[in-house]
């Protein structure tokens, strides 16, 4: 087994993704580690990853972690800031075979907001596109809209979206009904105050007319995204927008933004987090 | 044990409430029956209630049920309709000791909507207030706004509210922070399109300033209710509104509507469902 120079970790509420990194910051492997119970401290974190990374270890190995829970003390760096220049914080405790470095979250005062984990993704995107100037839209449980300029996160805003959609409807699949989605987006953008009644109407239509009603998931996702686009206008109107994500939800954002007349393209997140953690570890964005 | 003349049942997603009814339609007892797995047919329903009602049975006993799942075939009665005149439907199957009567749901074509269970509550309220003319607001997972006139449900509209609040925040308790709630309601009524970002801001404030941030539950409930009040204006502006419900969510609606200048009072639902099922069983509202 190839030895890892260091280990990159993305910590999310539902689990960890672990990348042992080799020569020239090459990704040696990608390991998904589900977290049954929430991990509350560094010892618990080390215990969770050790069985998976042990074969890659030789001596004390650095572990660079984005998205760690606030309680572990990585702290916050306020905007504006360069994600590649976030200085990791070294917590006490853990395991003698691992040297843990936690990347701080990015915070904003007005409006109050937190980027926790997405900063690694953004650092990875900027490592590939160091001259990018525009808006990154990162769909997820909390969708993030981030204004990027001169390698800095200038400002950002979170919208509770994926979480709302997941609580209301079956998951959106890649074959979602595009016209149902776009109609719902348009209606919700024009009438955001009708959101909660539109959601009830969509569900009732499904019951009263099950053969005629198509695309409950697309209708509900479109309604929630439409309200968001109305509230996020300052982030996309007249801006260059990149939807950073894969899967049906990102495709839904792309379709909705295109339909609303935005300048928008989609980029895959594949490989971006280890690339971003590499940039942060090296203290600057990679050259082109 | 007193014998029951008949048995009233309220069927909700999470369980049944069962009232054995005696002489003069007096409530003999109230029994809550949680439903672990969803009950799919009349036999399953009888099996769920029999252990609880057996001591009250003598001969074949009528069971009048509101809120039964659509799949059991009670069907729909469109608005406008008098809830006390909904004709129960008798399904096949079940148990020889019970004679099951399912109350149909109330439906609406434009906008598509369904009242399932609330019709018994409304019948109970109208049994006590037969001359009521105005709006009943029934807070719940789906909050219902019902226009009542001449003992009829004229029209209604559902808003997915309690379910949203429950998915986003810890439960609202009776000591909720009133000014936090009302500020959030006002902000959301004026800017419904900012709902999803306000929710993210409230959560971020809780993390960034845990000692200063008060009332996450009140802020989130207020935001969601404010968007609803903006969308439900036709139902409360210049109308006589009765919030029909107990507990913190109903108090939140009362406070929000009062603050918005509506003519509003609150009424308890205590005892109303068996009273409504009695009215439906007797085919007309009870006299004053």
Q: What features would you describe in this structure?
A:
The structure is a homodimer of 288-residue chains. Chain A has 288 residues and is of the alpha/beta class. Chain A has 2 domains: 6-130 and 271-282, Nucleotidyltransferase, domain 5 (2-Layer Sandwich); 158-267, Nucleotidyltransferase, domain 5. Helix content of chain A is 35%, strand content 25%. Chain A has 9 helices and 13 strands. Chain A has a 5-stranded mixed β-sheet, with helices on both faces. A 5-stranded mixed β-sheet of chain A has the order 11-10-9-12-13. A 3-stranded mixed β-sheet of chain A has the order 5-7-8, with no helix packed on it. In chain A, a hairpin with a 2-residue loop joins strand 1 (6-12) and strand 2. The longest helix of chain A is centred in the C-terminal third of the chain and has 16 residues, at 216-231.
CATH-defined fold name of the largest domain in chain A: Nucleotidyltransferase, domain 5
Count structural domains of chain A.
2
* Oligomeric state of this protein: homodimer
Termini Cα gap of chain A: 31 Å
The SSE order of chain A reads EEEHEEEEEHEEEHHHHHEHEH
Put the structure in a nutshell.
2 copies of one chain form a homodimer. Chain A is α/β, with parallel strands linked by helices and 288 residues long.
Notable traits:
homodimer, 288 residues, alpha/beta, Nucleotidyltransferase, domain 5, 5-stranded mixed β-sheet, 13 strands
């Amino acid at each position: 087994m190839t030895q890892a120079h260091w280990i990159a970790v993305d910590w999310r509420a539902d689990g960890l993704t672990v990348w042992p990194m080799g020569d020239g910051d090459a990704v040696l492997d990608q390991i998904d580690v589900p977290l049954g119970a929430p991990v509350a401290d560094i010892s618990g974190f080390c215990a969770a990853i050790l069985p998976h990374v042990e074969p890659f270890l030789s001596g004390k190995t650095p572990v660079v972690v984005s998205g760690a829970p606030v309680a572990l003390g990585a702290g916050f760096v306020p905007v504006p800031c360069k994600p590649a220049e976030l200085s990791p914080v070294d917590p006490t405790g853990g395991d003698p075979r691992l040297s843990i470095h936690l990347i701080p979250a990015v915070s904003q005062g007005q409006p109050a907001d937190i980027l926790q984990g997405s900063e690694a993704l953004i650092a990875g995107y900027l490592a590939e596109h160091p001259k990018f100037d525009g808006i990154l839209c990162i769909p997820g449980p909390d969708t993030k809209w981030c204004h990027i300029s001169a390698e800095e996160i200038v400002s950002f805003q979170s919208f509770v979206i994926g979480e709302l959609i997941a609580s209301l409807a079956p998951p959106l699949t890649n074959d979602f009904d595009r016209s149902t989605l776009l109609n719902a987006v348009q209606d919700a953008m024009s009438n955001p105050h009708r959101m909660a009644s539109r959601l009830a109407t969509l569900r009732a239509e499904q019951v009263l007319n099950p053969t005629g009603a198509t695309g409950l998931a697309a209708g509900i996702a479109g309604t929630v995204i439409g309200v968001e686009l109305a509230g996020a206008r300052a982030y996309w109107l007249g801006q260059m927008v990149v939807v950073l994500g894969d899967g049906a939800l990102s495709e839904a954002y792309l379709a909705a933004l295109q339909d609303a007349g935005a300048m928008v393209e989609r980029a895959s997140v594949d490989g971006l987090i280890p690339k971003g953690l590499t940039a942060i570890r090296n203290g600057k964005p990679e050259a082109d």
